[in-house]
Amino acid sequence: MASELLVVVGMAVAVYVPKALPLVLISEGLTSRLRRWLQYVAPAVLGALVAPSILAPGGRLGIPGWDQAAYVVAFAVAVWTRRMIPSLAAGIVAVVVAALLPH
Amino acid sequence: MRRARTHSPRRRRKPPTPGESLGVQSTRTLSNVSLTPPDALGRSIRDGFLAALTFFPSTLILGAIFGASTGAAGISPLAAIVMSAVVWSGAGQFAALPLWPEGAGVVILSALALSLRFTLITASMAPLLVDRPRWLRACLAYCVTDENYALAVTRQQGALEPGYLVGSWIPLYAAWVIGTAGGVLLGAQVPPDWVAPLKAVFPLVFLVLTVLLCTSIPLALVAVLGGGLSVLGAVYLPPGWNIVSAGLVASLVGLPLERLLRRPTRA
Predict the structure, then answer these.
(1) In terms of CA atoms, which chain B residue is nearest residue A95?
(2) A52 and B234 in contact (C-beta within 8 Å)?
(3) Most confident of A54-63, A91-100, B182-191
(4) Which of A15, B49, B131, B265 is deepest in the core (most CB within 10 A)?
């Protein structure tokens, strides 16, 4: 039991340290070049987070189906309205409709 | 072009409070003066809380599925609940399930690999938080995860409110821990028909947030490149490496791309 909890603490440290290092160490003196690079981290990471969960769930390339169509709907509404709630609502409606369609 | 707006109307940046520059909080009578006016702090906590509620149901269900799977993986009920409460990492904890019998080293290394993407994420947040005290930054680091990072970074360009991060952390944390405890104690009694739509919430919200974040062509190209590389990485790299490597490569392409696109085309 105790050793199990030690593994848990080890995991907690392994998860926390990568999060904390940049925030704790970066204090001053970032060059403007570095700042401008960091602006591109957000779209790169968000793109990297979302694409596999849509196109390769579980680490395997999926065959596009109705579920993927729901993402196309949300994407289109987001590009068009540039607003969160309508895009999300359209996407959820599309997911529900896709779940009702025969597979 | 209309500015990307997510969930709350844009607010003007607050002017620095007197307390910030004068350090009046050392005065006894003003002992509960915080760095931000209480109402502004309360508002950003509330905004974050409400925005992150979007993820509450799906996180709760995923937590329940995780909790219900721990028994079969050989994790004791207590360790499972403590894990969700202190590790608080969906990906790291699900990865631990099949690895648990292989021992501490493998489990911890896999959690580390899956957490490396946060180094990129918090590095991009760091310039916006440099004027905050270091202890606060160390605490905020614990509150950061994919969901509230995506919410915070699309909310206001060039600014990041600590209160918003904390506020959005609360429902995410609560859902994960409550879900895990429920799953451990009751088993995941989730109707299978619900799981797919609930699981779709995460990619849907992230897809929309990514679109809202891409307010210029280089930003959009970087997002597409990051997505493409990450899909390749998800198929060919060991788990956990695709996001950090795709994020790193795609973000490094950003500046050269920006320069290339800005170069005047010859007539």
Answers:
(1) B197
(2) yes
(3) A91-100
(4) A15
Q: Are residues B46 and B177 in the same domain?
A: yes
Are residues B146 and B179 part of one domain? yes
Write out the residue range of the structural domain in which residue B254 sits.
214-262
User: Is the ipTM above a cut-off of 0.95?
Assistant: no
Q: Are residues B194 and B229 in the same domain?
A: no
What residues of B are in contact with residue A49 (Cβ under 8 Å)?
117, 146, 150, 206, 230, 243
In a domain, B218, yes or no: yes
A28-45 in b/e form (b: 16+ CB < 10 A) is eebeeeeeebbbbbbbbb
* pLDDT for the residue B201: 78
Longest CA–CA span in chain B (Å) reads 70
Determine, for residues A40 and B254 on separate chains, whether the beta-carbon distance falls below 8 Å: yes
Using CB atoms, which residue from A11, A84, A95 is nearest to B200?
Answer: A95
Report which of residues A64 and B217 the model is more confident about: B217
Domain total for chain B?
2
What's the whole-model pTM score? 0.77
- Same domain, residue pair B192 and B256: no
The whole-number average pLDDT for the span B233-240 is 86
